[in-house]
Automatic annotation (TrEMBL):
Keywords: Golgi apparatus, Membrane, Transmembrane, Transmembrane helix. This is Golgi apparatus membrane protein TVP23. The keyword Transmembrane helix applies. The keyword Oxidoreductase does not apply. The chain crosses the membrane at residues 9-27, 33-53, 95-116, 122-140. Belongs to the TVP23 family. It comes from the Eukaryota.
Length: 151
């Protein structure tokens, strides 16, 4: 039988900063009345989450890696690498993909709420969250769907 999670530390950090960023966004006002502190804490957690997903958990949990290069003409070139998908832990892969999509959905929902409330300050945080999450989601989805340059 396959272990539930072969890399529990990676699974923890993959989910930890997603949850922490949303929590900081939602309850940061209870700990500080300062928008700037809430902004800095949430954006820092979002940045850490982006880095962990892109550089650590993507490689370990789903065997994928992506990056973007700029060529001499200023064009953008996506680069991809993929390990043999048959060797991956299915539970970890499931958690990786669903956490990416659910996290995007949560931030979109928070963006809708910020728009309805006309809370443009917090909308800035949501836009950063959506951009960072979308970059990882697009990169890993393209890599997984076979747009791989390096295999």
């Amino acid at each position: 039988a396959e272990d539930k999670y072969a890399n529990p530390i990676t699974v923890f950090f993959h989910t930890c900063f997603k949850v922490a960023a949303v929590a900081a966004y939602l309850i940061g006002g209870f700990f500080s009345a300062s928008y700037v502190i809430n902004f800095v804490v949430t954006i820092t957690l979002l940045g850490i989450d982006f880095w962990i997903v892109k550089n650590v958990s993507g490689r370990i949990l789903v065997g994928l890696r992506w990056w973007n290069e700029i060529n001499e003409k200023g064009g953008s070139i996506w680069r991809f690498e993929s390990l043999d998908q048959q060797q991956l832990n299915k539970n970890e892969a499931w958690l990786f993909w669903w956490s990416l999509y659910i996290n995007a959905g949560v931030w979109i929902a928070l963006g809708i709420v910020a728009l309805i409330k006309f809370n443009l300050d917090y909308m800035l945080i949501v836009i950063v969250a959506i951009v960072l999450n979308s970059a990882n989601t697009a990169g890993y989805t393209k890599c997984q769907k076979g747009y791989r340059i390096f295999c």
